[in-house]
Amino acid sequence: MKIGNFDLNTDGTFIIAELSANHGKEISIAKETIKAAKEIGANAIKLQTYTAETLTLNCEHNEFIVKGGTLWDNRKLFDLYQEAHLPWEWHQELFEYAREIGLDIFSTPFDKTAVDFLEQFNPSAYKIASFEITDYELIRYTASKMKPIIISTGIATIDEIQDAVEICREAGNHNIILLKCTSSYPAPLEDANLKTIPNLAQTFGVISGFSDHTLGVTAPTVAVALGARVIEKHFMLDKSVGGPDCEFSLNKNEFAQMIQVIRDTEKLLGKVNYKMTSSKEKSRCFSRSLYTSKNIKKGEKFTEENIKSVRPANGMHPKHLNTVLTKNAKNNIPKHTPLSFELMDSKEL
Length: 349
Prior knowledge:
- By secondary structure, the chain is of the alpha/beta class.
- It has twelve helices and twelve strands.
- The chain has helices at 27-40, 52-55, 77-84, 91-100, 112-119, 136-143, 158-170, 196-204, 218-225, 252-269, 278-283, 321-324, and strands at 2-3, 6-7, 14-18, 44-49, 104-109, 126-128, 149-152, 176-181, 207-212, 230-234, 289-292, 307-310.
- The radius of gyration is 30 Å and the shape is elongated.
């Protein structure tokens, strides 16, 4: 599967810098953030396309007030989304700018009107947010655009995940990526359950990855080690930008560190390989081999008292020890001589 020019089968981990609300209500900050994402080696910048009206109702009822120990407790949903949303009139300039500097760009639509709006920019993929995984019609409509579809599974039951995957396939879209996600902001490490990542791929026959809301860079690194092929994390220029997502976003230096650690992890994982490399061959000189540990006279029996398995590897392989113990010395052999079959009488005892 490809997202833009990035091949998920050959090009490593696809790293998404999530702009989200980290734009400070200024398009210049959004563009500087896109530029920074490119500079540090992210593979894509992701926007979120919604308005307060497409997400919720402008309602004062208690159920429309955030509560439950979040960063946004006691705020009205409508007001929170009004503050956080990225103006739709910015999209064209941001898409054009990202492509101009060679950075992939796509977005998360939160309703059908957002999908229709984004289609004019021909995004390389679409993302379904964690809380929208239960909006089956949104998933069906988005999947019908036949772009790779990335779905966060944060609040979903396993049945809802299965439903989402089947909806995409029924629409003829088989380019599905499921992201393990903990929908807490920030997410506690003990709730990450990263072992779910390989299980998502195995259970649903898709590519799996990780949408991270933990603090720091440990979780995405472990996720890659467990097989995540897509990593998404909130990104901002620096904390001075502020905003609703500031507390669980990485700044430029932190995100750059995460990318470096992920790329190092990819190198460490490598591939299954038992071949004798040049470095392994070179190091074999320090492995063990059989040497004489005492002077041995012609005809004398080889024993565990006069030969030893020691470093370096100039003598016979230690696997021949039991065979050697059935032999006599062909000639006088001084101590500290590497053993070979040429030094042994051909007949056994």
